[in-house]
Amino acid sequence: MKKVKGRMDECILVCVYYGPNGERLIRRGSKIANMLNCPLYILTVDPRPYDEFDAEKSDYVEHWRELADELGAEEFILKDNEKRPSAKVIADIAYHYNVTQIVIGETAQNRWEEITKGSFVNVLLREITFVDLYIVSVDRTIKSEEDEIYEKGVRCFLVKDGEGGYQLSFTLSKRSCFEGIFYKEIGTDFNTGVFKIVVSGKNCQVHVTDNKIMEPEKLPTCS
Q1: 167 in helix, strand or coil?
Q2: How many of the other CB atoms lie within 10 Å of CB of 74?
Q3: Which residue spans adopt a coiled-coil conformation according to this UniProt entry (predicted)?
Q4: Angle value at C-alpha 131, between 114 and 45, nearest 5 degrees
């Protein structure tokens, strides 16, 4: 049975993205909604149209849809082919459904994107000043292949070298051309690994060997 708004007039929105933590977020949001006896909505946003999703993403969406029905959510909302920033989409949905509490996962944005694009949480808070935001920790046992190969990413910069290429620098200076995140390979004493940056709105990564960028042609011209 669908819930009607309780005496506290609360409304929960759970925002999920693709991965194994989506179900955990939905169940956490459902518990909050049950405690407050209020409506629950579940939202996922994707810039691509649904018919272009791969099999894995489609499976996640269908599983979440079934879970929404199982838990008595008011609606599972899929905003596909969405060109607006996710924070604006979430804000619009929150306004439309009179949402008072939003649940998201702590890895809604990875570390290097947060530094190069700005914190997703801060952007979201600017868009929705009228709601409470719950950031749920993810399962620490779930690690990506990258996490197992590289150390924790650190902020760094690229500066031009004397050979027309670039070198890593961990200090911001007038010579700095690009800012991004460096992931050092585990088990090496040298600055060898991967440097990641956002170029024209797209993710770009280049390999680093002993401080030197090995694929400078992938980077735009430094202004």
Answers
A1: strand
A2: 18
A3: none
A4: 50
> Can you give the pLDDT at residue 138?
59
- CA 10 to chain centroid, in Å, comes to 26
CB–CB of 124/90 below 8 Å? yes
Domains in the chain with CATH codes: 12-141 (3.40.50.620), 154-218 (no CATH)
Which residue in 100, 119, 122 sits closest to 109, CA to CA?
119
Report yes or no: 73 and 41 within 8 Å, Cβ to Cβ. yes
Look at residues 179, 165, 171 and name the one whose alpha carbon lies nearest to residue 210.
Answer: 165
Q: What DSSP line would sit under 63-85, residue for residue?
A: HHHHHHHHTT-SEEEEE-S--S-
Report the amino acid identity of residue 134: Y
Mean pLDDT per segment of 10 residues, for the chain of length 223 residues? 55 85 89 92 90 80 92 94 88 93 69 52 78 72 49 84 84 85 78 80 78 82 69
What pLDDT was estimated at residue 146?
Answer: 45
CB 216 within 8 A of CB 166: yes
- Encoding tokens for residue 116? 């190069």
Residue whose entry in the numeric block shows the structure tokens 């604006």:
88
Tokens of 23: 């179900």
Strands of 132-136's sheet, edge to edge? 75-79, 40-45, 12-15, 101-105, 132-136
Identify the pLDDT of residue 8.
54
pLDDT of residue 79: 93
